[in-house]
Amino acid sequence: MSSESASKLVSDLTNSAKIQNMILYFSSNQIYDDNLKDLSSHLHKFTNLETLALEFSVNSIGAEGAIGFSSAIRQCNQLRFLELYLWYIDIYFFVY
């Protein structure tokens, strides 16, 4: 699945606003900062979401993507359980 397809999938799922539990596997899909931020921008639309498990192993996500994701996840007011899988992820940070 391409990173664009992953974002479209999450966007399309927002039509099912009653979803309470969601598990998505995006391992080895070339997810980068912009892709993660785009994907995350749809999370607040799941107004009933209580449990979220995401698999992002073997991707390239840096500080910008992580910050965008954390900002988006804070808008999920009903979220009670978050599980993230980040094995073998190329986390990179730039120090100026």
From TrEMBL:
Record InterPro entries: LRR_dom_sf
Molecular function via GO: kinase activity
Protein name: Kinase domain protein
Keywords attached to this entry: Kinase, Transferase
SUPFAM superfamilies referenced in this protein's UniProt entry, alphabetically: RNI-like
Annotated organism of origin: Tetrahymena thermophila (strain SB210)
